[in-house]
Every structure is written in structure tokens, then in C-alpha cells.
């Protein structure tokens, strides 16, 4: 069995992974909080999709591959298969999206959250072990079954707790605390799954491994991280702006906060006033009385 390093760069990878998990969870919980206040199904779905990318893409997938940059097998090169890596991203966002859509509509209930948590946790596990399948090295990967089972339990519990947070917490302080708990759970699931891994190298064939080097993944991961954060922020700001200038049901507000395209502008108000004035009959002159001497 080959020697395996999980913290090649020291504390940098786990700290960076935790921060990504926290930021993604924080943005996601903010989005689900806005979704609960949406008055139309379309707008609620929009906020839930934003939350799915924030939690699934940022808090889970980006956290996973940031932590994976610290993984090393000294006796063999480690390479990544890009198509399989992208597939794991689809699993993460899709699983979180399904769970959020399940709990984001209708009445809040514990059984519904538990069912959604099991499905979402299964998707998170599919993301993790698909991401592990994307690693190529000069040997075979084996897993410790009890530790894999532990990672399954952590994933399902973490997903269920996260979904409960998405339908219950409000306010920046509670959301920050919930995001920290979610980040700890996501990191715990990841490193439990990684602890289950062992590598058995081929003693005969030289390690010829195809794929991308881990350090070569820094640039695309950085770009995806920036695009995810910027995309989530811009989508959230756009949705907030639309809700600010409408009454929540899609119709424009009248007055100061109306949408520019449908605004009750000063020009329209002046024209309306002129029309009303033109239709109003002009007052008749009041005849002057000549004072009479008493």
C-alpha cells in the first residue's frame, strides 16, 4: 500500500476549503431566505436555483477540489480527468437543486425535509466519489467500508440539516452560524471519505498516468470560483432589483420605486395633469358689485 498525503501544503488547503464552504453556504442561505419571501412561484424558483449554484457549486464542489489539491501520492503522479470532474459538478448542483425545490414549495414539514435530505445527500456522495474517480494514478484505489459508511451518514445528516436551515433561518447572524455548521459538515464528510481511501500501486508497470496535473487545476478552479461568486452575486442583485421595483407579483409599482420601463414619470404626470386641466371647465368671472350709498 502506497503512502498517501492529504495535507501536502499544510493548513492552506483545509482552511481555503472551509472558507469556500462557508461563503457558498452563506450566499445559498441568503438566497433561500429571499425565496421564502417571493410571492410568485417563478421568482421563488429563481432564488432556489441561485442557492443551488451557491451551495452545490461553491460550498460543496469547489470545496472538494480545493481540498483535493492537497492530495498527493509520493510514489506516483496524480492526474485529473476533466470530463469526469465536470460530471461531478453536475451531480453537486443537481442534487442540491432537487432538494431545494422539494422543500422550497408548500408547507414546511420534517418528513419532507428528511426525504429531500436523503436524496440530496446521495447526490453529494455521488459528487464526491465521482470526483475521486476522476483521479488517475499508477495503481488502484481501495476504500475502507466502515469509513465509507460513516461518510454516507455524515452526508445525509449534513444535507438534511442544511435543507432545514434553508427553510427556517433568517437574519445575518443566524445565517452565519448555520453556514459555519454547514461548512464544518461538508468538510467533515470530505475528509472522512478521503480517510477511507488507500492506494495500491502496480509493482511491475511504471506509473504512466494521463490527465491534468493537480496544480494545473488551480487556474480553472480559480476561474470557476470567481465566476460562481460573481454570477450568484449578480443574479441575486438583479432579482432583488426587480423585486424592489415591483409589487412581488410582477406588476410595476407606481411612484418613486417604479421600474424605469413602466415608471409613472414626471413627464407622464405633467401630461395627465394638463389633460385634466383642459377638461375642467374654466371658472366663470364673478361680477363686481358697485357699492351703493346708504
From TrEMBL:
<feature type="transmembrane region" description="Helical">
    <location>
        <begin position="110"/>
        <end position="129"/>
    </location>
</feature>
<protein>
    <submittedName>
        <fullName>Histidine kinase</fullName>
    </submittedName>
</protein>
<feature type="transmembrane region" description="Helical">
    <location>
        <begin position="82"/>
        <end position="103"/>
    </location>
</feature>
<feature type="transmembrane region" description="Helical">
    <location>
        <begin position="47"/>
        <end position="70"/>
    </location>
</feature>
<feature type="transmembrane region" description="Helical">
    <location>
        <begin position="15"/>
        <end position="35"/>
    </location>
</feature>
<keyword id="KW-0812">Transmembrane</keyword>
<feature type="transmembrane region" description="Helical">
    <location>
        <begin position="172"/>
        <end position="192"/>
    </location>
</feature>
<keyword id="KW-0418">Kinase</keyword>
<feature type="transmembrane region" description="Helical">
    <location>
        <begin position="212"/>
        <end position="234"/>
    </location>
</feature>
<feature type="transmembrane region" description="Helical">
    <location>
        <begin position="141"/>
        <end position="165"/>
    </location>
</feature>
<dbReference type="InterPro" id="IPR005330">
    <property type="entry name" value="MHYT_dom"/>
</dbReference>
<keyword id="KW-1133">Transmembrane helix</keyword>
<keyword id="KW-0472">Membrane</keyword>
<feature type="domain" description="MHYT">
    <location>
        <begin position="9"/>
        <end position="200"/>
    </location>
</feature>
<keyword id="KW-0808">Transferase</keyword>
<dbReference type="GO" id="GO:0016301">
    <property type="term" value="F:kinase activity"/>
</dbReference>
<dbReference type="Pfam" id="PF03707">
    <property type="entry name" value="MHYT"/>
</dbReference>
